[in-house]
Amino acid sequence: MRGIASPASAAGIGTGVVLLAAALGFGRVDLAVAGALLLVAAATAMSSRRGAGAQMRIDRDQARAGGDGKTLEIPTRIALSVPDAEVLVVTTTAPGRRTRHTAVAGPTAEVPVQVRTVHSGDQDLLAVDALAVGRDGAWTMSLGPGQTVRARIDPHARALRDLPLPRVPSGLTGAHDAPRPGDGGEFRDIHPFAPGDRLQRIDWKATARLGRRPGDLYVRRTLATSDIDVAVVLDDGDDLAGVLGDWVRGDPGLGLPTSMDVAREAAWSLATAYLDRADQVSFQVLSRLSSAVPRGSGARHRERLRSAIAVVTAQQRMVRSRTPLVPANALVVLLSTFLDDEPVRLAGLWRAGGHRVVTVDVLPQLRTERLRREELAAARIVLGSRADRLADVRAMGADVLVWDAEPGARAAALRAMTRQRRRG
């Protein structure tokens, strides 16, 4: 990168020549001195290194949650070093926001920028351009081409206390109560002593109360613990913001989360909660079944799931894809906006196969302001069809969880699903 002579240098040389000519014509020594000084100053400025060895570095810290719980803040620092520069100008532009210009005097500068985003996944956070101005404005230099700060923002994992479970857990060990007797779970019943029972399980109070003949013994039995298989399936057919008027011309750069942001957050929150209980979790995307993450648990599997969920983007389905495969007796979590019939078909197939299905509605909270009459009529038709699909899902025995709701409402819905399984 080399500096370009500015008009100030040419103006200084021209002015110096004019002053020398005037000094010769009028016999003025002072004009000759002034012209000579201008020529020397312009020549010195133009003969400088003009920004040789210029450097620009952009450092980005880890994203942290903002005050509203939805916005993520990414502290960013732009460090510049341009020898012989007198002023450094940094221009930053965030998606959907105004351009900001920052001027710093001196050959070095460190400009802090607070980048804010409501989106997760791969995205452009900031466009950075820098301009250096030499001494007395003799030259300018662009530290180009401009750089773009691109990052992968992991979805936020919300803490979930209650989790829905399948009817019959299939694992041999874990954190959930199984219907069979065993060790580690809650109290099951009092049972006559049988071969294989441990002596430590004899309940002497129950034996004294229930024994009819000498030698009758009764043991206290507990439920066995088990893990479960959880198949998380994400419908990536839509990426819509909550503003109904922008569904046709939606811009993900707006300061509103989209349905794909909600889906990534819901998928990661549920996967994290089940992994914390040592369950087996798999992940699949409807339009890209080849990129599925097979069932597993543990720290390494958690990182695989995090990466797979963070990179999911919307991709329109042109043809019906094959049905994702899920393990036997698995809990199926289907995340969708339910704006087409494919999620309803899949939920029906899985329910017919004996799986418990939890459908997660990932459409953001809707805003209908400033809609024209015909747009409002179209929105009512689309949302009415969507409500019919959700009613069909409930009628086939699947649970429906609205994710982008008040935290209390979401927690109450999960608690009701958990109690429903226990009653069953």
- Would you report the number of β strands? 18
- Could you please say which CATH topology of the largest domain applies here? Rossmann fold
How far is the first residue's CA from the last residue's CA? 72 Å
Residue runs with pLDDT of under 50 for 5 or more positions: 174-180
Task: Give the ordered list of helices and strands.
Answer: EHHEEEEEEEEEEHEEHEEHEHEHEH
Structural category: alpha+beta
Largest sheet, strands/sense/barrel: 6 strands, antiparallel
Number of domains: 4
The percent of residues in helical segments reads: 25-40%
The CATH C-level class name of the largest domain: Alpha Beta
Keywords: Membrane, Transmembrane, Transmembrane helix
Region (Disordered): 163-188
Organism: Microbacterium horticulturae
Protein name: DUF58 domain-containing protein
Question: What do these coordinates show?
Answer:
This protein is of the alpha+beta class. The protein has 4 domains: 4-46; 55-153, Sandwich (Immunoglobulin-like); 176-226, no CATH class; 229-423, Rossmann fold. The chain is built from 8 helices and 18 strands. The strands form 4 sheets. Strands 1, 5, 6, 8, 9 and 10 form a 6-stranded antiparallel β-sheet that branches. Strands 15-14-13-16-17-18 form a 6-stranded mixed β-sheet, sandwiched between helices. A hairpin with a 6-residue loop joins strand 3 (64-65) and strand 4. Helix 1 (7-26) runs antiparallel to helix 2 (29-46). The radius of gyration is 34 Å and the shape is elongated. The termini are far apart. The model is unreliable at 174-180 (pLDDT under 50). It holds the Pfam family DUF58. Keywords: Membrane, Transmembrane, Transmembrane helix.
